Amino acid sequence: MSSLVQPLAAGPARKTIVRALVWLISLALLGWFAVWASRSIVATKAPVIPTAKVRRGDLSLALTARAEVRGGAPETLTAPMIGGEQHITSMLKSGDSVKPGDVVVQLNTSEQEFKLKEAESDLAEAEQHLLQARAQSAADAEEDAYALASAKSQVKLAELDVKRNPLLATIVARQNDLALEAARDKLAQLEHNIGNRQKTNTAAIAIQEASKTKALQAIKTAHESIESMTLKTHHAGYVSIKATDPNMIGPGMVLPPFQVGDTVRPGMAIAEIPDLDKWEVAARMEEVDRGHVALNDKADISVIALPGRKFHGHVSNVGGTAGQFWDRHFECKIALEDPVTELRPGMSAIVVMTTDELRNVLWIPAQALFEADGRTFVYVRSGKSFVARDVKLARRNETRAVVTGVLEGQEVALSNPLETEKKKEAAANPLQSIQK
């Protein structure tokens, strides 16, 4: 009975072992096939080094930049130079149309109106004091005239008495002489006092007139200040509100435009009114291109909102360099020579400026030029590989570079062969690269 049970038990166990072995072999074959397939697929998709040939010929170098359509010759509205901070009480919005004489920005005039009232009060007081000074001077003049006439009359009478001295006793004659001398002294003293009093009255009048003039000037200044705090445009156009303080912009910061309630400092630009009779585009260009841009350089403009149309212009202004050291740039303004009625402020545009016409030069695509460790070089094909060769860069732009140190027709790599080789090795040994 036991002998029959053992074969029956051994049969299922053997089948289980066989099935397990079959599964293990199948998994091993499947893994090997997966690795082989992955290597084959990666190998077939290994990157190929793109190349180009060194060419000789005439070359036009151009600069390309993004730009914005604007009205030309903008009128800048600035806070008046009256000292102290000022506050915006009302203003138009960016994009609003305006005509000559329209109020764009109104600043708070409370302080200036207070100064105006003070000046008007000072003027009224100065005028009152001036009237008093003139009246006092007139009264003093009349009193002095009477006193002077009386003193002169006393002198005349004394002189007549002296003329009778030969007929009078000695003592009486002496008394007449003394009376004449006293009358003359009194007249001289009176004339001196009258002269001083006239000078004093004249000075008092001059002081009050100066106070009046000062008050009038203060009133005029207050009126001018109040008027200057109402910023008006002198020509038709549209409003462009400036940023609150462009000097405070840091990395990644975008300051909002001015709005009602903001504080402005004297001389700060608040808004611009571009002249729509003179269209221009403002292009932001890299600092390295500054030496290749000059006034009156010709430019071709494509306005994105008007596809298929080409515009022409010339450089009208090259701005100063600005920005942080990692983003140095300058603004280049280009006057449009053939504007159309479809143009609108703020439209985006592409500007292409031909900066140089070079004759019979060697040139390569810009991506074939490499720089490292102070060297400028290219990778020239040598058999099935590439070798680095130093070159001298004469000129370059976004797409092409003019060089010396290579021969016409030589094949140069458009990507770094060493980096490409590393990518190939990594693709050929994916498991090894994963382990690393």
Largest sheet: 6 strands, antiparallel, barrel
Distance between the termini: 62 Å
Strand order of the largest sheet: 2-10-13-12-11-14
| Percentage of β-strand residues | 25-35%
- What fold name stands as the CATH topology of the domain at 110-228? Helix Hairpins
Characterization of this structure:
With 436 residues, the chain is an alpha+beta fold. Helix content is 40%, strand content 32%. It is built from 5 helices and 20 strands. It has helices at 2-44, 110-163, 170-228, 417-428, 430-435; strands spanning 51-53, 55-78, 86-91, 97-98, 103-107, 230-232, 237-238, 240-241, 263-264, 269-286, 298-303, 310-318, 329-336, 348-365, 370-372, 375-382, 385-390, 392-396, 400-404, 411-413. The strands form 5 sheets. It has a 6-stranded antiparallel barrel. It has a 4-stranded antiparallel sheet with strand order 6-5-3-9. A hairpin with a 2-residue loop joins strand 16 (375-382) and strand 17. The longest helix has 59 residues, at 170-228. The model is unreliable at 1-10 and 42-46 (pLDDT under 50).
